[in-house]
Amino acid sequence: MGNLQVFSLNEAEKKSLIETYEQFYFVKDSYTKKEKEVLGTILKNKTQYAIEEYAENVLNNSIPLDKRVFLWKAGRLQKNEAICKDANSISEVRNGRGHKIENADEFISEIKKMTLVKGKGSFKVNYNSLLKISEQVKLKNVGAVYLITILFFLSDKEYPIYDYFAHKAVKALYLKKKPHEVFVGAAPDKKEKDKVFAMYGEYIYLLDHVLGYHNIERELDRALWVYGHYKKEIQ
Fold this sequence. Notes:
49% of the residues lie in helices and 0% in strands. With 235 residues, the protein is mainly alpha-helical.
């Protein structure tokens, strides 16, 4: 059996990926005919800069982590909610499928008391801790992907956010295919821990082998998310 041929993007290729695709993560005033043809349904999922700034403000500790993180991950955070100073003014939080997330405030309060474990195998330990807290406070309608997002913020980006489309994108780059040519399954139930760890482990492996590291920058994460939607290439 031969040696594994590792494919890594060089700095120029990474820069090109970001410059080509990240722009479509955000709202644009207009699109060319070619962009409309290639982008398809992604045009329905545009993000305003103020909403993305919410995440940046949490990461740089300008504002505390609060229940808005669920709305942000679900693509449901509104501009007025992103810039408001008091998250308590937001009465209702829903997930990506529109289901109400119950006991979000209680969950956020408890996880702030956590001490994250670091080092080899730490993701599994910390995920298990979050899962336990979610069960204790009866957090409902929050899946594995949301718990991983929480770990992204708590760990100061040590654990990358997981996303189906970013997974497709990096898998396609690794296999030298196009995103629509590769298969990535739906995220398992948050309690199916072995499956969650397998899904996330593959994503980490792919990031490490394509990019050389997995705690990727937000601009690269956004570019991968956009690229993962494409069925054609921007020319």
